[in-house]
């Protein structure tokens, strides 16, 4: 299947306005990172204008090489450790300044760290709760190489939602996620429920990478078997020419069909559409659910 380069008309987005630019300036001033900027998200203008932010912790460099991702990759990151140590505090200060009530935190993958970055997640969550214990936090975590102690560390900080993205169908993992494992990702979601049954879990599938409809349905079934509560489905867009090419633009009608299928599987909340990303409208997507 040949790559496709021209975007359908529904991907046209407004350029960032003054409100969005002010947020970018604030993030730069405090030295905090967002996946919105790092991943070149098409929703950046809308989200920043409405103070919807996904913070990215543990630096700007990942230890893995997912073909769809725009984040820089290196096996042994030489991070500014004093700066990283300040990251949880800096993010909590930004949260306070912006008056956020729902915060999404994700990270680069750090296989070079003993706990894979779990304590950094927990510290960030704890300091944000220190600003206001009523703030709801969604933690979008890596697989931690399956380390249960790392999962327990994050869960102990009481995030409202714990997300881990399956990203794509099983057949495409070798090409797209050579350092990840489909079964391990499903296992992470299952283990979260085993450790803390009341916590809300979430995952996301990118479409347009060459998957078939049947493979998407099978992935939904696998996620449901892992007791995943929330599912998002969105169109993959190659962030640069060096990334994995787009194989297909999924129609709006097909996204609606996938949403109906996911709801029939029994997911508690589903968001499906071309511009949907894992953290897009995160508060609205989880708003009808309750953490016990």
Structure report:
The protein is an alpha/beta fold and 292 residues long. The protein has one domain (12-286): Aldolase class I (TIM Barrel, Alpha-Beta Barrel). 39% of the residues lie in helices and 14% in strands. The protein contains 11 helices and 10 strands. The protein has helices spanning 18-30, 35-38, 44-49, 81-98, 118-131, 148-156, 173-176, 182-195, 213-225, 252-265, 282-286, and strands spanning 33-34, 54-57, 61-62, 72-73, 102-107, 136-140, 161-163, 200-207, 230-235, 269-272. The strands form 2 sheets. Strands 1-2-5-6-7-8-9-10 form an 8-stranded mixed sheet. The chain has a two-stranded parallel ribbon with strand order 3-4. Helix 5 (118-131) links the parallel strand 5 (102-107) and strand 6 (136-140). Helix 5 (118-131) packs parallel to helix 6 (148-156), helix 6 packs across helix 8 and helix 9 (213-225) runs parallel beside helix 10. It is globular and about 45 Å long. The model has no long low-confidence stretch (mean pLDDT 89).
How are the secondary structure elements laid out?
Blueprint (H helix, E strand, L loop, with lengths): L17 H13 L2 E2 H4 L5 H6 L4 E4 L3 E2 L9 E2 L7 H18 L3 E6 L10 H14 L4 E5 L7 H9 L4 E3 L9 H4 L5 H14 L4 E8 L5 H13 L4 E6 L16 H14 L3 E4 L9 H5 L6
Parallel strand pairs: 2-5, 3-4, 5-6, 6-7, 7-8, 8-9, 9-10
Antiparallel strand pairs: 1-2
Helix pairs in contact: 4-5, 5-6, 6-8, 9-10
Give the tally of structural domains: 1
End-to-end separation: 46 Å
What about the largest sheet? Answer: 8 strands, mixed
Number of E-type strands? 10
CATH architecture: Alpha-Beta Barrel
Name of the CATH first level: Alpha Beta
Radius of gyration: 18 Å
As a percent range, the share of strand residues is: 5-15%
Low-confidence stretches are: none
Mean pLDDT: 89
List the strand order in the largest sheet: 1-2-5-6-7-8-9-10
User: Helical percent range?
Assistant: 25-40%
Number of helices: 11
CATH superfamily: Aldolase class I
The CATH topology is what? TIM Barrel
Q: What is the global morphology?
A: globular
Structural class: alpha/beta
Order of helices and strands: HEHHEEEHEHEHEHHEHEHEH
């Amino acid at each position: 299947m040949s790559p496709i380069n021209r975007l359908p008309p529904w991907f046209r987005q407004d350029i960032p306005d003054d409100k969005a630019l002010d947020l970018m300036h604030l993030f730069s001033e405090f030295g905090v990172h967002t996946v919105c900027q790092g991943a070149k998200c098409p929703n950046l203008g809308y989200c920043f204008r409405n103070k919807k932010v996904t913070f990215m912790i543990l630096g700007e460099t990942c230890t893995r090489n997912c073909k769809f991702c725009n984040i820089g990759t290196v096996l042994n990151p030489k991070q500014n450790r004093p700066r990283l140590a300040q990251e949880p505090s800096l993010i909590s200060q930004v949260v306070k300044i912006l008056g956020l009530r729902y915060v999404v935190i994700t990270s680069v993958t750090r296989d070079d760290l003993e706990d894979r970055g779990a304590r950094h997640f927990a510290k960030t969550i704890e300091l944000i709760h220190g600003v206001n214990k009523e703030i709801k936090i969604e933690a979008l975590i890596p697989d931690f190489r399956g380390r249960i102690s790392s999962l327990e560390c994050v869960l102990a900080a009481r995030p409202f939602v714990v997300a881990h993205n399956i990203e794509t169908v099983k057949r495409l993992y070798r090409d797209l996620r050579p350092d990840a494992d489909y079964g391990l990702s499903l296992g992470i979601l299952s283990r979260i429920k085993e450790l803390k049954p009341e916590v809300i879990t979430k995952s996301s599938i990118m479409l347009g990478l060459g998957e078939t409809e049947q493979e998407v349905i099978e992935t939904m079934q696998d996620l449901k078997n892992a007791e995943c509560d929330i599912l998002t489905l969105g169109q993959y867009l190659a962030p640069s020419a060096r990334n994995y090419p787009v194989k297909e633009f999924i129609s709006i009608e097909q996204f609606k069909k996938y949403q109906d299928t996911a709801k029939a599987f029994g997911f508690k909340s589903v968001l499906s559409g071309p511009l949907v990303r894992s953290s897009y409208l995160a508060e609205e997507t989880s708003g009808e659910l309750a953490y016990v």
